Amino acid sequence: MNRHTAESLLMQNAQEGTYLLRPSSTEGECALSVRCENSVKHFHIVYTGTEYKFGHGKFDKLETLVEHFQNQPLIGGESGQLVLLNSPYPRDIEEPDNYESVTVHAEFSSGRNKLQQEFSINSKEGYLTKLGLIFKTWRYRWFVLQRNELKYYKCKTDKMPIRVLDLNECTECCKDNTFKDKCNLFRLKFTWRTFYFFAATEQDMDEWIRVITWRLQNQRKISTNSQ
């Protein structure tokens, strides 16, 4: 199972704290994918050749690592967001054995010039401090990135976002030094406004820039291929 499949399963079917262990993109190593409230976090499990390293722990075999997960450890990354490992995603799930019969089967095109579709989820969530437009004050907000939308809320428990930013309209995401007294500052540039944010750590800022920039580049690639 790759990263996209893991994220799709956890976002669609799982609750917060559900996790699965899967092969990493690095051959011979593993990754842990965990469902958070509105996103999925992926943690790398390093294999040194003799043992597996996860966080501050070392495990001689995968079975020992799985046993450790059963103790429901609390884990977190550079963003500072913590998640409790509650339950593994089951490998086998029973489903009804129902199928529909094909009653219509017609060809509408030759298969050329098909519209490219975006399938990536690319989720992330966490707190950032954002500069207001009118009063130019810095406000602590909860941000959720899913697909091409970046939503922000007054607090994590709110159900309705203050605003939803369409990243299809975003032209740039990069580190910024406009405000000399702010560390870990970056900006999102739109044709109609530039948004400024700063993160709690440099690692968290880098991760936000990385996932949003990847999203922008991927969207441009799809748009180019559709032309």
Automatic annotation (TrEMBL):
<dbReference type="InterPro" id="IPR000980">
    <property type="entry name" value="SH2"/>
</dbReference>
<feature type="domain" description="SH2">
    <location>
        <begin position="1"/>
        <end position="89"/>
    </location>
</feature>
<feature type="domain" description="PH">
    <location>
        <begin position="121"/>
        <end position="217"/>
    </location>
</feature>
<protein>
    <recommendedName>
        <fullName>Dual adapter for phosphotyrosine and 3-phosphotyrosine and 3-phosphoinositide</fullName>
    </recommendedName>
</protein>
<keyword id="KW-0727">SH2 domain</keyword>
<dbReference type="Pfam" id="PF00169">
    <property type="entry name" value="PH"/>
</dbReference>
<dbReference type="Pfam" id="PF00017">
    <property type="entry name" value="SH2"/>
</dbReference>
<dbReference type="InterPro" id="IPR036860">
    <property type="entry name" value="SH2_dom_sf"/>
</dbReference>
<dbReference type="InterPro" id="IPR001849">
    <property type="entry name" value="PH_domain"/>
</dbReference>
<dbReference type="InterPro" id="IPR051707">
    <property type="entry name" value="PI-Interact_SigTrans_Reg"/>
</dbReference>
<dbReference type="InterPro" id="IPR011993">
    <property type="entry name" value="PH-like_dom_sf"/>
</dbReference>
